[in-house]
Amino acid sequence: AAEHAEGAADDLWAAVSWTSVRYNWLGTRPGSRSRAQRAVGGRPQRPAAAVRASSETAMSARLAKKVHHAFKFRGMSARADAVRAVASVLQREPEPDEAMDSIIDAVQRAMERREASSSVVDLATVEQVVAELTRDEEDIAQESIRVFQTADVPKFLYNAARKTFYKVDAPAGLHCPAETNIAMWRERYQLVEQRVLRNAMFSPPVLGSSKREYFQLTPLESLLGTTGTKYVLGMLVQPEEGRYCIEDQSSRVPIDLSAASTTSGLFTECSIVLAQGELREGTFHVAMMGFPPPEKRVDSLLAMGTVDPMGLLTTPHELRKVQALEEEAEASMFVILSDVHLDNPRVFDKVQALLEGFADVVPDVIVFMGNFISAPFGHGADDRRLYAENLTRLADLIAGYPSLANGSKFVFVPGLDDPGGSVLPRAPIPAVFTKALRAQVRNVEFASNPCRLRFYSQDIVLFRHDLVSKMRRHAVVPPTDAHGTFEITEHLVRTVVDQGHLCPMAPTVQPVYWGKDHALRLYPLPQVAILADSFESYHWNYNETTVFNPGPFHEDASFVVYRPASMEAEFSRVDT
Questions:
Q1: What confidence tens digit (pLDDT) does each residue in 132-171 have?
Q2: Which residues of 502-516 are buried (b: 16+ CB within 10 A; e: fewer)?
Q3: What is the DSSP annotation of 236-292?
Q4: Is residue 500's pLDDT more than 70?
Q5: Is the pLDDT of residue 468 over 70?
Q6: CA dist 167 to 109, 180, 302, Å?
Q7: From CA 547, how far away is CA 21, in angstroms rounded?
Q8: How far apart are CA 412 and CA 395, in angstroms?
């Protein structure tokens, strides 16, 4: 768009008047005639090129004026270079009025998404919008698979007064001031609270509605002096050993869980809960406790006012087009394996057998998830050298299968025992260890933990953590359910989805970088969440979200073949 804008500007100033064109063509002064002209008594004739340039300039000027008024009618003011860029694009469109409306609509949405403090449209915004609107199917296919690191995940906040979401810039560094810690907990709570208040069970009936009953939530600061059963929403906290409280944005109240019944889930410290009970003698005695009801992805997107929080898709029309291409990609296939201990010769042989099996049927993506060593990194004197050698051996092995090395996209997600520390989110494997893989594998990406994998319109979250054992060990109450039929992995899945967070635990159990906590949030919910764990493999579908664990590859050589077009996960095993 910028190139077209510059071209239009050059045309405008090079052939802006008939006088300058005539002077340049005849080589005479304005108002004078050449000898041949005087001989025939005629006036100079404009060349065809000059006529075309003049007409194009006039058309461009009319379009620019029209574009300027159209922006002004929508309450925006466009800079001159932005207007010229739009006019340049419209000159090549068969239906310029329709194209202008589409561009201005998209610009307005872009301005609203980032809540710009100014209504002035600059050239960069126009360039971005035009580039998104002019993507064809070939462009979409080339960009069908993308990996988003922690730093690429946008951060959205909720404005309770306006009941809208707005995008903000996340802190660039890992270490932030103390107020960032306070903001992190407030943002977690607000994300859950806004969807609970929008839920039909907790929203008051509108005038004229047939709905009469709903559960009214009581703020904790309003409990004092009340009697009877109340419903509250808050976060479980433990200000001192063995003493639990429930806390919201206004107050903190001690709770008694001795007689509490619970729904399914793993209730850990710092998880957000709905509680039914009664305040007696300054303590809220809980009769029933459960997690907030989850919200479907489509409802969350509607509340956020966007079709794609990642910013790749901007219009419903573009979303439908991408979804149609996604459904047609029936041959696409991802291979996911976790806990690949490359320092174990037996595991390495299993990896070789797996690559050999897929050499003729090349997957689109092969995901290796840590841990890549059998013992935590840094406990041995030679860990640095051995870790680099193991990844180099893997690079040589992959290079031995050219169809995979050149045709598949390899993604490496570190575990908490790999080099880089144990605070979430985890940075990618350091580049000092990955030189051989980068040199020998054509398409390889070293991702953060967690990260997001995009396939057309499908969001896939990749996360490696021992969630089952850690959350079970730190549960405030034992996991139960009304029928006693839930497995521990189902409790985990419901906890993660209901909380809208990958790791809803206390910072003493699992520390998190305060300024990067938004990368762990699941709002809106993804279509797929791959929670790689050292626990045995599992697969659940809950609230239209597919959640599975491929299982530890180092134990039984288990892995998953995922087909994104049909959203089917096939659990497999290498047998040698």
A1: 777 665 556 567 899 999 999 999 999 999 999 999 998 8
A2: bbbbeeeebebbbbb
A3: EEEEETTEEEEE-SS-EEEEE-TT-EE-SS--BTT-EEEEEEEEETTEEEEEEEEPP
A4: yes
A5: yes
A6: 12, 17, 15
A7: 69
A8: 12
